[in-house]
Amino acid sequence: MRPTRRLWSVGGLALIVTVLAIIFARPLLLVATAMIGAWILVRQYLFITTVAETLDSLSVTQSVPSMAVRTDGTTPVTLVAERSATTALSLTLDAGIPTAGRSYKPLSVSLGPAESTAERTEIIEWPIAGRHEFDEVTLTASDGLFEATVGVGPTPAVTVEPRGPRNVHVGAGGDYVAIAQGAHQAGRLKSGLEPAEIREYVSGDTADQIDWNATARFATPHVREYETETDRPTVLVVDHRSALTTGPADETKLDYLREVALGITESAHRLDDPLGLVTIGEDGITNRIAKSTTRYRTIRRRLFDLEATKPETERSVSKTRMPTRSAATAPRSALDRLAVDGETGFARSLAPFYRNRQLTHERIDAEPLLAGVRLGTSRQREKTWTVICTDDSDPTAVLDAVGLARANGNDVLVILAPTVLFEPSGMSDVERAYDRYVSFETFRQELDAIDQVRALEVAPGDRLATILAAGTGRRLRGVRQ
Q1: pLDDT single digits (tens) 139-186
Q2: Distance, CA of 372 to CA of 286 (rounded, Å)
Q3: Do residues 81 and 60 lie in contact, with contact meaning Cβ atoms separated by under 8 Å?
Q4: 338, 347 in Cβ contact below 8 A?
Q5: CA–centroid distance for 342 within its chain
Q6: Fewer beta carbons below 10 Å: N end or C end of the chain?
Q7: d(C-alpha 371, C-alpha 330), whole Å
Q8: Phi/psi at 429 (nearest 5 deg)?
């Protein structure tokens, strides 16, 4: 509680009367001063009791229609004040907008002594990601002589999410599949890499643990368990070429692939698994971070900074191409030397071998995705989990990249963004979109059937559900059985 200017004026008058009583020796004037003081005390007591009554009869809400919003998004915030009994107090209420919220007009309402309700709505902008809780509404009550300020009402919270894809679906044939690296504890049977045993299904096992081949053989559900490893060295190969720009702003193929890559990065960090990163642009390799257990933040930062490259982007050869081979070891040089003595039987026998090698290396050097996979998996002494994040725009390159990644016994996870689920016009003809998705699913299953390879889709869940609904009643041709 604090005095108002009016009360200070009354106090000043009492002081003047007291001074005059002393100067003119008029004790009667002191009685007037005492009466003013008593009147102030009575008004103070009445103010305190009236404020208490007002708080009991007052209902205050500050409401937000949506508790989640994207960065730089806006939400209307409504402040409502109602009191069931009118009093002599004037009330002013200011909303408890978080400091992270930006309002161009103050959100406040006033209630006069005879008013019982007031309401106002303002648009609040949210430029900072995070969970922001409102403060209590600041209530200022006044009777003209005294003022009191208290906090009232509920404190809702708004979660501001970074801009990016919503409703991220990762799965196979429309079914959700969780990507988890598992707990790497040697000697325990759980999700991992090395097959350990097949046992009969028991209550508590998850559906993704079921081995369907064994189930078909034994006619009862069986589960395959794996021997977990102490760690799982992982290499992320992330494609960010121009084809990955397909999709609405902040919901492109690249945005969805980035979400998966960030999730795998977080999992590797939690399990302390060595993690490396290779990113692929239009002109070749744009970033390479060797496997390490200390560079998770760097990898996250690189992933967040990724933007789709353009075909006309010019990059220096030193940043985009693999190191050139020496003349002594280059396949072309070996072939040239064989051509010098091309008439001998030895030369004729070896020439096709070197020619095939030459074509293979030329194919790798010409295709950025293959070059990235080779760089990420070369000189590996241990078994590495290679995660390839790309789309379905070049199936041949994806197949070649998978073959290259698993050449040394590595396990491969392919995350594919189906083009049909990202094209702006892809949903204009749902029936045709469904047929295109079936073609994509056939390709994904082809990849998934390769030993040591797992292929999953990443896409907007709502769009995928719409397409699958269009196929209801039709034979899904292997998408779902």
Answers
A1: 998 888 888 999 998 888 888 877 777 788 999 888 888 775 544 444
A2: 9
A3: yes
A4: yes
A5: 60
A6: C
A7: 16
A8: -125, 95
Which distant-in-sequence residues (6+ apart) come within 8 Å of 276 by Cβ? 233, 234, 235, 236, 288, 289, 290, 291, 292, 376
Whether the Cβ atoms of residue 147 and residue 54 lie closer than 8 Å to each other: no
**Where would I find the H helices in 327-381?**
331-340, 345-366, 368-377
Report yes or no: 268 and 275 within 8 Å, Cβ to Cβ: yes
Q: Nearest to residue 371, comparing CAs of 300, 315, 301, 307? A: 315
pLDDT at residue 7, rounded to an integer? 72
Q: Is 245 exposed, middle or buried (0-12, 13-18, 19+ CB in 10 A)?
A: middle
Q: How many CA atoms lie within 13 A of 374 on its CB side?
A: 19
Give the three-class secondary structure for 291: strand
pLDDT of residue 180: 57
Q: How many CA atoms lie within 13 A of 442 on its CB side?
A: 8
Q: Which of 375, 395, 377 is nearest to 386 (CA)?
A: 377
pLDDT recorded at residue 241 = 93
- As a whole number of Å, the end-to-end CA separation of the chain is 73
Whole-number pLDDT of residue 430: 83
Alpha carbon of 449 to those of 13, 127, 194, 195, 442: distances in Å? Answer: 95, 46, 18, 17, 11
pLDDT at 264: 93
Q: How far apart are CA 226 and CA 277, in angstroms?
A: 26
Note the pLDDT of residue 353: 45
Give the H/E segment covering residue 234.
strand 234-239
Provide the pairing of β-strand 137-142 with 284-292: unpaired
**Residues of the chain under the 70 pLDDT cut:** 180-196, 204, 226-230, 311-362, 380-381, 426, 473-481
Bridge-partner residues for 142, per DSSP? 90, 147
Digit-coded pLDDT (tens) for 228-257: 455 789 999 999 999 999 988 888 999 999
